[in-house]
Design a protein that fits this description.
The chain is an alpha/beta fold. It folds into 2 domains: 149 residues, Rossmann fold; 174 residues, Rossmann fold (3-Layer(aba) Sandwich). It is 37% helix and 15% strand. The protein has 13 helices and 12 strands. The strands form 2 sheets. A 6-stranded parallel β-sheet has the order 3-2-1-4-5-6, sandwiched between helices. Strand 4, helix 5 and strand 5 form a beta-alpha-beta unit. The longest helix has 16 residues.
Length: 341
């Protein structure tokens, strides 16, 4: 049996959907599994033994052609990609995103069976079966676990997982040494795509001082190339107590840094979800969004103060105050660390 998983974007959701792989591979005989993914996130799965192949999909290229009204070129791209997918002869396409575009990708894959989440998105006719996201919204990755159960697959291990290559671990060691870290440390993940999910800069600075004074350990900031300026704002000038890997470490190298950390503290971002997948003590700071309150592992603690407007997701009503995130105090973070560390 050949299966195509469609979850091309969102680092955190790729991580949270990973238990699906074990459930599928647990069949006899085990199926061949391919994952359709944004090339920028492919390193999340390159070393995963449950994935037999990656299908890169350049969404940015398709979007560019569409916005520039280059429809003939776009149609050629779609036809070429469709031929590539159909040549794989998939038996099943699993849409783990539930968007119009992911349903369309499932359709052009040519898979006889196409299963995905029900949602208000158009394109339901592209699918052969739609499944709800289930009644339990508190557990990390609950929708993916529910989908597997509804399809008759046994989920023996609901915890997310990541696999790191040796090269990433070696590179992470180099980054840590260059930053002056040669022993235990805390990892901080302050950045994500939406400002309403951020914890105040001053809170990160105060937390780093407390971690140094109370635990005697340095902290290192994680982030991508677009987070360099924000990292410098948090770190401050000469003599700063926070080290930096933002814009230096790749996704896989950042994961390797997390795997060595004493604990990870982060907002609702893919790097924070990696802490759970790598079985490191993790404190997750949620406000405008609340993807989960519980995880399959005891080492993750979620701090979330529900307000009448919570979760606002993409529609904040606080006019940029982000009260839900400000309500999380540094002392609460430290207390959560003591509970799980």
């Amino acid at each position: 049996m050949r299966i195509l998983i469609i979850r091309p974007s969102s680092m955190g959701d790729v991580v949270m959907a990973s238990p699906v792989l074990k459930a599928l591979k647990g069949q006899t005989p085990p199926p061949e599994i391919h994952w359709l993914i944004d090339p920028a996130l492919s390193e999340l799965l390159e070393d995963n033994p449950f994935v037999d192949g990656l299908i890169p999909w350049d969404k940015r290229r398709w979007n560019k052609l569409f916005t520039q009204f280059r429809f003939v070129e776009l149609l050629r791209e779609i036809k070429k990609f469709r031929c590539h997918l159909k040549a794989q002869a998939y038996d099943l396409a699993l849409d783990l995103q539930g968007l119009f575009r992911s349903r369309f990708l499932a359709f052009i894959s040519g898979a006889r069976e196409r299963v995905g989440f029900s949602s208000r998105e158009p394109g339901a006719f592209f699918m052969t079966r739609l499944v709800s996201k289930g009644p339990d919204k508190k557990l990390m990755g609950s929708e993916y676990l529910y989908l597997m159960e509804e399809m008759g697959y046994e989920v023996s291990d609901p915890a997310p997982h990541l696999f790191l290559g040796k090269g990433a671990e070696e590179k992470a060691n180099e980054i840590l040494k260059r930053s002056g870290i040669d022993g235990p440390f805390f990892a901080l993940a302050p950045f994500t795509t939406r400002p309403q999910k951020h914890w105040p800069k001053e809170s990160w600075q105060k937390l780093a001082l407390v971690l140094r004074d109370r635990f005697g350990l340095p902290s290192i900031i994680l982030g991508g190339p677009g987070d360099v300026a924000g990292a410098q704002e948090i770190i401050g000038g000469e003599g700063a107590v926070i080290k930096n890997s933002a814009g230096i470490a790749s996704i896989r190298e950042s994961a390797a840094i997390i795997s060595r950390a004493e604990a990870l503290i982060g907002v609702d971002t893919g790097l924070t979800h990696m802490g759970t997948a790598l079985k490191r003590p993790t404190v997750a700071l949620f406000g405008a969004t609340c993807p989960y309150l519980e995880t399959p592992l005891e080492g993750t603690k979620v701090l979330y103060h529900k307000l009448p407007c919570s979760p606002c997701k993409r529609r904040p009503t606080c006019k940029g105050d982000y009260t839900c995130m400000k309500k999380i105090e540094v002392d609460q973070v430290v207390e959560a660390l003591l509970e799980i560390h």
